[in-house]
From TrEMBL:
Annotated Gene Ontology cellular component terms: plasma membrane
Protein name: RND transporter
Molecular function via GO: efflux transmembrane transporter activity
PANTHER family named in the record: OUTER MEMBRANE CATION EFFLUX PROTEIN, OUTER MEMBRANE PROTEIN-RELATED
Cell compartments where the protein resides: Cell membrane
Pfam family, one: OEP
Amino acid sequence: MYKKSILKWVGLAFVSLTYTACSLPNLVQRTANTAVPATFNNSQDTTNTAKMKWKEFFTDPNLTALIDTALQHNQELNITLQEIQIAQNEVRARKGEYLPFVGLRGGAGVDKVARYTNIGAMEATTDIKPEKEIPEPLPDFMVGAYATWEVDIWHKLHNAKRAALSRYLSSVEGKNFMVTNLIAEIANSYFELLALDNQLAIVKQNIEIQNNALQIVKLQKEATRVTELAVRRFQAQVLNTQSLQYNIQQRITETENRINFLVGRYPQPVQRNNQAFDNLIPKPIQAGIPAQLLSNRPDIKQAELELAAAKLDVKVAKAMFYPSLGISAGIGYQAFNPTYLLKPESLLYTLAGDLAAPLVNKNAIKSVFNSANAKQIQAVYNYERTILNANMEVANQLAKISNLEKSFNLKSQEVEALTQSIDISNNLFRSARADYMEVLLTQRDALESRFDLVETRMQQMNAMVDIYRALGGGWN
């Protein structure tokens, strides 16, 4: 009889499996295209600046102190660290699902059967000796252990655990990518702050030069060599430059507070060497080869792990169409009197197997499978897009570094020429060989050119930081 029962269940399982296999939705698979160009600039040199640790790449002690503080106190980074902890706990939870659940159970209760029920009527008509009567109401005491286990025949639970593990590793790479961006943002803001300090010093120098020119014009007006119009134009130029000073001071305050926010502290002055900007020279960058981005860039590794997790999710969803086997067991003691509880006659045990498979109305399971399949395709495209974007970023920054270097050299010559022209125009003005408009225009052009030179140097430093980030440096 037991053999027939087993054969019946096996037969049902086989029929269910056959029917399920025939009714599976179509699986759309797409392989990610990870092919990248052979080189960035026709060089096969594999030396890569991204391998440098950020403390070696950035040597300014004030900047490294800011980065150190940010890595400890930046709120967004700390939020991400908690997300990693959540992902790690998810891995533990998934691992526990394919192991047996074992627990202890104990209970006590009382039961009074109504007289006019089938059980009550049977007890009333049963001839039981007085000393053997069933207590009324009937107490019930029980203590024992129980276990349940879903046998992972189709690796559904194991694949779910592996998907959770991939997402945990993905969250770690996400944290690394955030560290890279955080370091780059602090460095760029720091160099911007140095540039603003430099521009403020230029403005103050120009205010002094313009004030001297204004005094000369006033003396020349007294000598009737110029009119009141010249005095007013020079005075307006001084006022315009003075207003520019306060605009720069406001930008300095905002940049300082941007840095303070990134390092997780309230507004306060940012320690820096104001004289260091003139001596800043961008570091030489070695880009290596594009294939190195696949291992250097945390966002690419994150996308790769998300793709692996999405593929495992498809396997988990596919396994939901197949029968699941569950086993439950229990052992313990149960009696209506505590004094009988530990006697051999009170021993009870149970062992059961449960086989279940979906046959009709599988819309919910099909929807889960189709969604997992679509997310897998989505993850493939995201992986390809991340690789493409990384290559574009490096190519753009390499071109920017080259062009900014040429631009800086030309602007340096422009500043030198215009700085000399200020003295020339002043001398010509004193000897009445140039009018005041030539002096004003020369001073304005010289100020703008010096501003542009500082701006170009700042862009060079930012490009150096951005190429380091684009190559995947900073997180290690």
